[in-house]
Amino acid sequence: MEKVTIATVARRAGVSRQTVSNVINTPDVVREETRERVREAITALGYRVNQAARQMRTGRSRLIAVRIEPARDGINGSVLDRFLHGLTDAAGLAGYRVMLYTAADDNDEIATYDDLLSAYDLDAFVLTSTHHGDPRTSWLAERSVPFVTFGRPWGAPDMHSWVDVDNAAGTAAATEHLLAAGHQRIGFLGWPAGSGVGDARREGWHRVLGPWGPSAASTDGVQGGAEAARALLATDEPPTALVCASDSLALGALQAARELGRECAVVGFDDTAVAQAIGLTSVSQPLAEAAARCMDLLAELLDGRAPSVPATVLLPPSLVLRQTA
């Protein structure tokens, strides 16, 4: 079989060899349409960058690390699995490899950073699940370790580059859809206050709804969602629709409505495989795009091409309509 080279990829994509090299090494200088065409050719041909030669040339390992999130209830935990899949694909196209690690909490994760940096020649980290008062970013920044985050620095200045999904826009779109369908009493089922993501999802609902709007908070999970929804649906003026901060809470809301014999439209968030299987209307995050943008920002940072002001990318989600709403 003929060896696949940059020239082979260039012929397949109908571009120059320099353009292929730019897509691999400096993707931001290539138009998005051309970049996608080259990446498709790379994938179709199975082209692999010569990592040994590149490491000798750049002095870098081309290795980045990211945490595996805990499985939790097996529903919403799959969301970041999809992000990791997209990040691994994007990293491979850029000539990087991804190392995975686990951590129980922030302190455990910081200790893991220390261990990994001592044992491996890591180039950078990608952080997920950012939150208020997140100590991980300051630890890495103080040691000049390159990183980007999937998730904004909630409540803190934009001191590092990040990619996030516009959570408020997602729940706003869900609420607008329910209003257009004739619902006037639309409740919200979310997480306890203080979660950056959860508060943003509640804000999108509240922004659209106006004066009427009962809400309830629960830790994430089907059982918690069922209990919180049961309390809302048992009121004198029960909601006829519920916007939920996660698919797990939405499944609990459906269970509660069925047990009480109530007609109630339900919208979840994250468009998990379970939502697809049972016909749950849900807000979908562009996880593959988010992962690719994280990798682009990281490549800029590692190549010394990052802007003087940290880059921030906020991606719009989409509402996937199914039987429940």
TrEMBL record:
All copies of domain HTH lacI-type, residue ranges: 4-58
Signal peptide: none
InterPro entries: HTH_LacI, LacI/GalR-like_sensor, Lambda_DNA-bd_dom_sf, Peripla_BP_I
Keyword set, alphabetical order: DNA-binding, Transcription, Transcription regulation
The keyword Transmembrane belongs to this UniProt entry's keyword annotation: no
UniProt xrefs under Gene3D superfamilies: 3.40.50.2300, lambda repressor-like DNA-binding domains
Organism: Paractinoplanes pyxinae
Protein name: Substrate-binding domain-containing protein
SUPFAM superfamilies: lambda repressor-like DNA-binding domains, Periplasmic binding protein-like I
Entry keyword annotation includes Ribosomal protein: no
Record-linked Pfam families: LacI, Peripla_BP_3
Domain of life (superkingdom): Bacteria
PANTHER family: HTH-TYPE TRANSCRIPTIONAL REGULATOR GALS, LACI-RELATED TRANSCRIPTIONAL REPRESSOR
